[in-house]
What does this fold into?
Amino acid sequence: MKQTYVVTLTAGEDGYIVAECPALPGCVSQGKTREEALTNIREAIEGIIEVRRAQKLPILSPDIVEISVAT
It folds into this structure.
């Protein structure tokens, strides 16, 4: 079963792009380009899910909420 996780991308101080998955605490990666950061965070997400399964821990589902903000 495929899950969709929200990933945030921010510019790091060192010029790298930092990718983070808020639904999985501690799931952070980075890359020199947007594509590299997304590839790396995908691998990190898959790794966390694999470890949680091996340890018989629950796999957290993403909690996606849309919020409108006046700009």
About this structure: DSSP finds one helix and three strands in the chain.
